[in-house]
Design a protein that fits this description.
With about 290 residues, this protein is an alpha/beta fold. The chain has helices at about 10-20, 50-55, 55-60, 65-80, 85-95, 110, 215-225, 245-255, 285-290; strands at about 20-25, 45, 50, 100-105, 120, 125-130, 140, 200-205, 230-235, 260-265, 280. The structure holds ligand BJW.
Length: about 290
């Protein structure tokens, strides 16, 4: 069998139309054309840091201010971004089929494209959930869209910008660029837990080494284990290297599903079993997904 599966639209759509149960596993590439950077490869650096190195409990322990600056920046960028045609196409598919989106993304764009919440499973949490970092405190809130979450995390602005007037706010500086000076923060000015009044709040996302949300995993397992077979898994914009999320590809395949991959990079067609998949559509998810789901 070929290393890279074919991009045969006709056979894919035939299978899609006859499929009764479909799951999509999506990752950062889904939101790339909305202007949000991916984790690996170009764009995976935030200042001088690998994005994946900031996404750990150890990083937050060592430097909560830096980690909050990273997440506050991403909250801001995600709120400014717009869902793209692929987010809408998946939301639409969820309305007409027995379909579930397993999203590794934390940017809120699928929700804003009105994906039915009951069939959208967020395995890595959300940038807009926050919770207390103290193990004894169970404080958590969701849909906190306050931007910046605390005044100290406001992006620095270019006060020397000549176009700045009272009506027009000064241009925000891009703190993901290491040439821009990061504002110095006092730990006291970071978001604090309103319940225990002791702990720092932290983003409600899943960091390396942490458990994925139990209820979400349970829902996915129940859907996957339904005696009615899964016919198709569509793997969109993910390097499929992070577990356990990546294992859903083989889980679905083992349950009889065919595998379709949408990705810019043929090197990221998930390797598994005897060969990678049944279809590979190479290119930008925001163009390809609406096209193949038509
Ligand atoms: C486009 C495009 C365009 C670009 N159109 N495409 C089994 C084996 C080995 C290791 C492990 C294992 N089981 C568990 C582990 C450890 C670890 C792990 O998987 N490590 C691997 C790296 C090896 N997993 C965990 O720690 C998980 N927890 C866990 O397992 O708990 C149990 C446990 C506890 C203790 C010990 C052992 C077990 C938790 C994983 C949490 C991941 N969290 C992050 C951060 C979330 C918060 C945040 O956003 O900051 O999740 S890391 C980061 O990676 C983020 C993403 O959701 C995730 C996946 O990345 P994604 O989405 O695939 O992005 P990229 O950048 O990798 O890929 C983008 C793709 O798009 C590329 O393919 C591009 O080509 C493509 N693309 N533009 C289409 N326009």
């Amino acid at each position: 069998p070929p290393l890279v599966p074919p991009a045969d639209l006709e056979s894919f759509q035939k299978h899609l139309n006859s499929s009764k149960r479909i799951v999509a596993l999506v990752g950062a590439g889904l939101s790339a054309s909305s202007g949000l950077p991916t984790f690996r490869g170009a764009g995976g650096l935030w200042r001088t840091h690998e994005a994946t190195e900031l996404a750990t409990p150890g990083a937050f322990q060592r430097d909560p201010a830096l980690v909050w600056q990273f997440y506050s920046y991403r909250r801001h960028m995600s709120l400014k971004a717009h869902p793209n045609r692929a987010h809408y196409a998946l939301a639409e598919l969820a309305r007409r089929k027995d379909f579930m989106t397993v999203s590794q993304n934390v940017d809120g764009l699928s929700q804003r494209a009105s994906h039915p919440p009951s069939s959208l499973k967020l395995v890595h949490g959300s940038l807009f959930d926050v919770k207390c970092n103290e193990f004894f405190c169970e404080y958590a809130e969701s849909n906190n869209f306050t931007d910046p979450i605390v005044p100290a995390l406001a992006l620095p602005t270019d006060e020397s910008d000549p176009t700045t007037t009272e009506a027009l706010r000064a241009r925000e500086l891009d703190i993901s660029d290491e040439r821009v000076t990061l504002p110095e923060l006092n730990i006291r000015d970071l978001p604090r837990c309103p319940k225990c009044k002791k702990g720092l709040l932290r983003p409600g996302v899943v960091w390396f080494g942490e458990m994925l949300p139990k209820d979400t995993l349970k829902d996915i397992e129940t859907w996957m284990d339904d005696p009615r077979q899964i016919d198709l898994i569509i793997v969109i914009g993910t390097s499929a290297r992070v577990y356990p999320a990546a294992s859903y590809v083989d889980d679905a395949r083992m349950r009889g599903a065919k595998v379709a991959v949408v990705n810019m990079d043929p090197a990221d067609v998930p390797a598994g079993g005897l060969y990678a998949g049944d279809w590979f559509f190479q290119g930008d998810a925001s163009e390809i997904v609406p096209e193949i789901l038509k």
